[in-house]
C-alpha cells in the first residue's frame, strides 16, 4: 500500500511512501524494546536534557517544519509556525521540570520508610491525527519518553513527511536509536499491532469510533491507554460579557485551522439579551478574515485537509436547512483546493446535526438561550465533554457556572489552549486519561509503592 501526501491547496501529490508490513513493524518494535532496556534505566535528568536540545532544533528549523505542515494538511503558514514554536515550549517545560515531577514521593505510614516511585512501562504506541501533525505527536511522546518509556508512532496516513521529520528531530537531538520510531502504516496494521499485544500502552487522538475500537483492544489486553477523542465545545456568552472581545475570540476559536480543531468553539450559546449584538460583532470580524493560499503569511483560513471532508460539511448544512436554518456564508469560492466557505447559522436549533455532533470545519451555529440554566443545560446536552468557554463580566458567576459544566476544562473570558503546565483531556465520549503536566507524565508509569520495615 502507498501512503500519499497531497497538498490540499494545489491538489498535487507532495510525497509518496510505501507502507510497512506487519513483519517490518514487529522488527522495529523489538528494536524499540531493546532501546528501552537502557533508556528506561537512565536517571530522569539524563533523559530530560535531550529535550532541551530538541527545543533548539525546533526554533532553528521553524520555517522548514512549518512548510511541511502547510503542504501536507493546508494549515496557514503563520499558524504552522506557531505550532512548531509550541513544540519547542513543550520540550523546554519537560526538560526543566520532568526530573522534579518524577521524584519519589515520601509517605509517612509509621514504617521505617514508605514511598511511591514511578517506573516506565516500556513501548508506548501513539496513534496520532493530522490536524496538528507536530504538536499532537510531541504532546503524547515527550511526557512518555521523559518518564523512561520509548515510543512508536502511527501517524495519520496523509502526513507521512511530518512523521518522518519528527523522527529526525529525535535523532538530531541525540536520543539513543529507537527511543522513538515512526511506522508508516495504515489503520489495519495498527490494529494488528494491538491485537498481537506488541506494545505496553497506547495513546490515541482521533474520533469516537476509533477510540471505541482501540479501547476494546487495549482493555482486552489489559493495557493502559489515553484517549483524546474530540468534542463539541460550548462557547457561552452571558449578557454582561464584553461582546466585542467575545466575538473576536469566537471567530478565532471557531475558524482557526479552518475549524479543524478538537477544542474549537463548535456551539456558540448566547443569552437572548445580547445575541443580536454578538452576531453583528461576529459577522464583522469574520468578514475581515483572509481566505486563500496557506503559504501566504496574511492568510487566516486555508483549505481543509482532505477532499472528502467537503461532502460531510455539505451534509451538515443540508440537515440544518431542512430544519429551517438560515445560513450566512463569507468569502469567495475557490475553483481549486479543498476550500469550504466559512458559514454562520444565526438561529441554530439543538436538533440540528451541527449542534449534536463534532463538526470539523468552519461552520458556526449560534444557539439562543434565555438564561444561565438553559445555557448549562444545552452545553451539557452532547455526548462530548472536552472543553468549554464562558464569557461574563461577573467572574464569580462565571466560576459558578464552570462548576456545572461537564468537561475536562473550562476557560473564562479566553480560549481553550493546551498548555504543558496544566492537564489536557476530556470526559464522557471526549476520552479518558490526561496529557501534559505531571498528570500526563505519569499516565504510562507503574506507580509503585515501597514500604520498608526494620
3D architecture notes:
- There is one protein chain.
- The protein has a seven-stranded mixed β-sheet, sandwiched between helices. Strands 7-6-5-8-9-19 form a six-stranded mixed β-sheet, sandwiched between helices.
- Helix 2 packs antiparallel against helix 4 and helix 4 packs parallel to helix 5.
- The protein is 41% helix and 19% strand.
- The mean pLDDT is 97.
- By secondary structure, it is α/β, with parallel strands linked by helices.
In short:
About 40% of the residues lie in helices and about 20% in strands.
Mean pLDDT: 97
Question: What amount of the residues lies in strands?
Answer: 15-25%
What count of helical segments does DSSP give?
A: 15
Strands ordered across the widest β-sheet: 12-13-14-11-10-16-17
Evaluate the radius of gyration.
23 Å
Secondary structure layout:
Elements: E1 2-6, E2 13-18, H1 22-39, H2 44-60, H3 62-73, H4 77-101, E3 105-106, E4 113-120, E5 123-127, H5 135-146, E6 150-154, H6 160-172, E7 180-183, H7 187-195, E8 201-205, H8 208-220, E9 225-228, E10 234-237, H9 243-255, E11 267-271, H10 275-286, H11 308-322, E12 328-329, E13 343-345, H12 353-356, E14 363-369, H13 372-379, E15 384-385, E16 387-391, H14 395-402, E17 409-412, E18 427-428, E19 431-432, H15 437-441, E20 445-452
Parallel strand pairs: 5-6, 5-8, 6-7, 8-9, 10-11, 10-16, 11-14, 13-14, 16-17
Antiparallel strand pairs: 1-2, 3-4, 4-20, 9-19, 12-13, 15-18
Helix pairs in contact: 2-4, 3-4, 3-6, 4-5, 9-10
